[in-house]
Sequence to fold (383 residues):
Amino acid sequence: MFSPRSFASLTALAGALIIGFTSCKKEGGNANADEIVIGEVAAMTGGTATFGTSSHAGTQMAIDEINAAGGLLGKKLKLITEDDQSKQGEAGTVAKKLISREKIVALLGEVASGKSLEMGPIAQKAGVPMISPASTNPKVTEVGDYVFRICFIDPFQGTVMAKFAMSRGWKKVAILTDTKQDYSVGLAQFFKEYFAKNGGTITGEQSYGSGDKDFKAQLTAIKAGAPDAIFASGYYNETGLIAAQARELGITAPLLGGDGWDSPSLVEVAGKAIEGSFFSNHFSNEDKSPKIQDFVKRFQAKHGKTPDAMAALGYDSAMILADAIKRAGTTEGKALRDAIATTKDFDGITGKITLDEKRNANKSAVVLTIKDGKFSFVESLAP
Ligand code: PHE
Fold:
């Protein structure tokens, strides 16, 4: 029999053991909380604000749905979102803050490749898995084995648009690049490589920097080369202005671009000038598949607007992370990284997602055109 005293010391010992055990079990730095904390870096304000507000809306919707279904590993998910104000430099700063102060178990973001390129080395160094929903520049995931993306990459996207131009019989194309964006520079290069190798002619190459408002000099030079189309690989804001100014200068050639055009602001800025132009994207909300239409309906009910590609990709990025946490059974960095890396045939809104050994996804792209102020589906191209 134990004396009351030895019983008391036994209880104390058991208590100490329990405390010791829980602190050993520390998961992602958030040991005793009943929440799994996930960080998100998004451009909620500034030059690419629709990228951030949209991807965040999709990401948050996924988190809310997971929590409504009971959460993960017996805990609720908590999403902490930091606004990088669309500023180069700021994405890295807020990523650091999320990792050191909030002890996040994983990092979601960014949309723009230049920002993801800033965040990658920080996540890698801290051993915190990062998933970019939408950054397509190849360099993003080359940073290290903790950095993933769930979208296709620009060598594919550039090829899709080069093939598309050729299928329309457009053999002479001018290039207009935003040299401040890794995304724009890369995409233009991949377009050019495929197009020139397959018999196309580049009539001229012009450039600008994000934030510029006057593109008349570049467009005048482009007009002199009489191209059949202009490949404008920048983001939506500048592209809207470029389209408007091209028409003012009497250029009637269609504009071609990539996913960076995907924003309701494109049409708001360009008006009729962007009608009949084409861009590649990850998703069409006109897709008739029941899974997509159901997503579109849920998103509309929650946010009062139609989801664009970033919304769908943000949603998929959070769902893929959740799937990996479930499979890992833990939020410990290395185990979670390994689980994300083995994502296979995940049935996402933006397609079937399998991550390859370079932590990229091979997925189809869609080509959209602007018709009556709306993005309208033209065709889908498999990798
Ligand atoms: N792919 C773009 C980039 O890497 C970002 C983007 C994705 C923009 C999807 C719009 C839609 O910078």
User: Anything to note?
Assistant: Confidence is low (pLDDT under 50) at residues 1-32. The first helix runs from residue 4 to 24. The first strand starts at residue 35 and ends at 42. The chain is about 45% helix and 20% strand.
